[in-house]
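Re: the 310-residue chain
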Amino acid sequence: MDYAARFEEAGLWRGRHGLQPVARDGFRIGLVVVDVQNTFCTPGFELVVAGAVDDSRRLCEFIYRNLGQITKVLPTLDTHQALQIFHRVFLVDDEGRHPEPYTVVSADDVAAGRWRTSPAAEGLGLDPDHLLDYTRALAEGGKYELTVWPFHAMLGGVGYALVSAVEEAIFFHGVARESSPKFQQKGADPLTEHYSALGPEMETAPGQRNRALIEELVAFDAIVIAGQAKSHCVAWTIQDLLEDPLVRDRKLEEKVYLLEDCTSPVVVPGADFTEEADAAFARFAESGAHVVRSTDPMREWPGVVGARLS
């Protein structure tokens, strides 16, 4: 991206259309962009979600169309290295072979000795029973079973970066509205999966819940959520948000808006999570969140009608 050119264009656009700085927003809207990274969204990369290319295009159009309404963009970044519990190098069978991508590892598998931590993982100094405790905790908590994913979102790699067009839209918004995006890294703990932007699948240390992000989100008048994948990182982020006492006790679910046409479920060899994703969004709608489309005029969204938008 030619940042200097986009900077000049955003300034001209701001003047031409009378965009105000976000400090003057009477109705504050936060846009959470979940893991719109090359690794999930760009053909040829490691874990591309079917539908993500069109989702990203629609997301860009949504940002440009609503430059004057969006107060802040909060992009999340799946952040991994090789030696993590969901990557092949972490696990071996009784013959020392690593699992293939998309292998599902259940608590029963671990208890039966079909999979165990590799010598490399043991070098992390983890509890010998961690893998068994972890897979049991997932089952007991109603989470997805441990999945061995292809190496993805590798910190420092090209796959880790935001989709270029989405990054450009976020940069343009930031200049045009005088609003710095707030990036959120997640997923660096080697001992747990971390689908939700608000916390890992299992807390392995105190303070891993992102309280600061939760508090920032509930301060917005509307929280808009889009990204990848609908069945995993998007769904668990929404669920964690809606189940948080700060949201539930104050009945703030109705300020959450889900862009259903800017997100798609994981569909990979041997696993199609479409039903799980659709069921999750139905639950969210039942709880009070709004499922909307990016092309719906924001002024007509439930709860936004009559609000003083820029």
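Residues 3-80+152-299 form a domain with the Rossmann fold fold (CATH 3.40.50.850).
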